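Justification of computing resources. Each target in the renewal requires a structure prediction run like the one illustrated here; the chain below, 325 residues long, is used simply to show the kind of job we budget for.
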Amino acid sequence: MARTIRINLPFSLYHVLSRTNTGVIAFADHEDEQKFLLYLGKYAAIFSIKIHAWCLMNTHFHILMETAEQPDISEFMRRLLTVYTVYYNRRHKRHGHLFHGRFKSYVVDKAAYLLELSRYIHLNPATASSPQNPETYRGSSLRYYIHGGEPEFLYTAEILAWFKGNRKQYAKFVRKGLSENIKPEIIGQMFVGAKNFIQKTQNRKAQLEKSGTRAWAAQKKREQAQQDKQKRKAEEILNKVADYFHLSPEAIKNSRYGKGTIGKARSLVLMLLRVHLPWSGARVMRFMGLRSQSMLSYHSKAVSEEDYCILEKEINNKNKVCKSK
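Resulting structure tokens:
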């Protein structure tokens, strides 16, 4: 069966969710949750995405978000899940994919379902196999809606405006959902909304595609410039790692040996490329002249925390505290 084509619409509300592979725990503790939210905020800023709500469960997560003028949900999620998986695998000494297959995304009728979906997402802890109190659950954005102190990337104003900014009234609205069936209707595995909303959304998508044809050449030019910029960044990373290990870039890329200093250097380059560039595993391997993507998992385990920290500091030009080499 062919994959469902992802719909990217500007200034639109989306419900996004993703599950882990075979029930792997994606958020083992508060540190994992905080790291995921750090990356969520980082990439929301890069892609100009408004985050209205989230809930991080053991084996899956929900995000309620709104796109900007030039949306790219697939790239936003790819970068978010890649950088978190790299972090998670390193911390928990595992390898391979963390999340299962493609993430799901639904275009949402904002006027009809913004409040209901925020409530549905915030009530997830209460419907889990081991129910928890949604108001005290640390893995969701509900606590910020109730108590304030929300991070900069969480956009609470629009939902709270329906309650005239009264946080207690929103908490009451969420609690009421415990006794109601609030899951919105999903139609065609793409939409949350009524049939007239779906028709309008499909017409809007067709108009955008038609107008986009005229801008095709300009878009291709921008894409080529972006690819050139990414390649320069990749070369910069390779050169910094080469200098750090007192090797030549050619030795790191072309050597047939995967152990010793060259192996460490190559592993570090591969990891830094995955973190700093929006490249697939195949693209990273092509740049390095390697064939098997399965080697990415092997190399991710071969990187020392000390070397990674020092090179991250140099690449980002930040005063990051690292252990001495």
